[in-house]
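Researcher: We're teaching a course module on how sequence relates to structure. For the next exercise, students receive a sequence and then see the predicted structure as tokens, so they can try to spot secondary structure elements on their own. Here is the exercise chain.
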Amino acid sequence: MNYEDDNVESGQAGKSDAEYKADIANREKEVTKALNAGKPQDALNVALADPPIYTKTGAIKDQNATIVLNLLGSFKDKDVETSVETLNDDQLDILMKYVYRGLATGENSPIFFKWHECVLKKGGAGTIIRVISEKKTV
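Model: And here is the predicted structure for the students to work with:
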């Protein structure tokens, strides 16, 4: 077993931390590019794709969460529901994990409550149940 295997949750053939770091750097560039092009929905899709749920390295999860939470905070209130409506169930679950993470910071709570309301409206209580019972965190 090598060092990289030690940082992957057991039972999962996840990526190495180096691969996650490269993915996160690319994700940040793509999110910024989409936002600069006036395409927040594209930025959201990129931000929610392939989160680092299989790593045990908190710094990697924190770095990715910063990208997602900053993106969520940048949405205009009126655009949140429209954006949520385009997401599939897996994306809704991932988004809800980030919403709870954002609420846990105690910062920018009104926008995270708006996201929560819209995700709950579309995904129903099942989204909340899956998120709170899931062991893999973002």
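Model: If you want an answer key for the exercise: The chain has a mean pLDDT of 91. The chain has eight helices and no strands.
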